[Ribosomal protein bS18]-alanine N-acetyltransferase
Amino acid sequence: MIRRMKPSDLMEIEQIEKRSFSSKWQKEHFLYELSENDYAYLYVVEVNGRVVAYIDFWITFDICQLASIAVHPAFRRAGHAHALMQQMISDAINANCDNISLEVRISNLPAQKLYESFGFMQVNVRKGYYSDNQEDALLLVKPLGVMINE
């Protein structure tokens, strides 16, 4: 079940972060996203009362930016990331966004495959983007808007 993230989910979110990323967001970052960032959309996937995946994205004006998505390792390959991506795309379309953008580590081939399955295209490389090891990031974009010739 996909639902909005709540502050009470943050202990489980922290565990997913620890098991998923070398450069982790802290609990305070998520609290800021939940309580102070008016542009943030946060969802979780709950299975049998347990949070097993989450997504955080921002919609500002006509642009959607994926901030973070992760699935607990024990629950991967069950379609949870796919469902969260669909939620983000739906929200972005409903907000009349022109596109969705994201950065992904060059070494993260499973994530790249997921994003490509949704039609994201590489538009740039951000050199040394990740602070933990200076790994490059691919900048990917998915166009949503319809171009109208006048």
